[in-house]
Amino acid sequence: MTQHTFDAARIAELDRRVRVAARTLARAGLAHAYGHCSARLDADHFLVCAARPMGLIGVGEAGTVVPVNGPLPDGVLGEVRLHQKIYRSRPDIGAVARSMPPKTMSLSTLRRTPRALHGPGTYFAPGVPLWDDPQLIRSDAQAEAVIAKMGENAAVVMRGNGAVVAADSLEAMVALTWYLEDAARVDLDVLALETLHPAAVLDLDACHARATRSGRIIERMWEYLSTGDPELPAASASVAA
Predict the structure, then answer these.
(1) Which residues form the Class II aldolase/adducin N-terminal domain (predicted)?
(2) How far apart are the first and last CA of the chain?
């Protein structure tokens, strides 16, 4: 990992949490060989997972500290530019994932993004923006345009090219990526019948009322998805015992 003046213990703990999130996204089927996730370190830096399939990132395998402004460090994947642009423009964001959710991908080839048809879809009201270009993001100008399209939404879908999800925490980012995919699953199911039975799309007021974080909504989804990871504190304590 590139060395900085940050406290080593703080970086190590954030690195562990990023690894858990990365493997969790992969186990949930939200990423395959491609994808990456990161967490903010401070106003000017974030830590991105190792540049390899997230499900294969090993226990203790270090990520890289990346500047919010400036060139990407050696060995960091080109589309991490997307993370940079989000952290730069949205100080409320603490974690970002670039992932490949399969149902979201299928829906995007119809130039559609998930509608708010059930609870998980309401977290993206008034609607998930679509970046209508299947090309990989290989320049700062492309990344800036994608994130401009995203605006203040929790996600942006890239036609035939996966999605980017951002949230205030790693746990929320993972949960929202799962919500996005579940919303796409439901939308695809409904599309098959919609000519006979119009879908009941939730309006903006209903979305705002439903998209709650009370009742440990995010925490419970995180617990469900991340359970069994070898670097969760409970798992580490169990192994030590």
Answers:
(1) 16-188
(2) 30
pTM of the model: 0.94
Structural contact between residues 225 and 178, judged by C-beta atoms closer than 8 angstroms: yes
Q: Of 181, 115, 183, 125, nearest to 152 (Cα)?
A: 125
Assess contact for 40 and 87: CB atoms under 8 A: yes
pLDDT tens, residue by residue, 85-140: 999 999 999 999 999 999 999 999 999 999 999 999 999 999 999 999 999 999 99
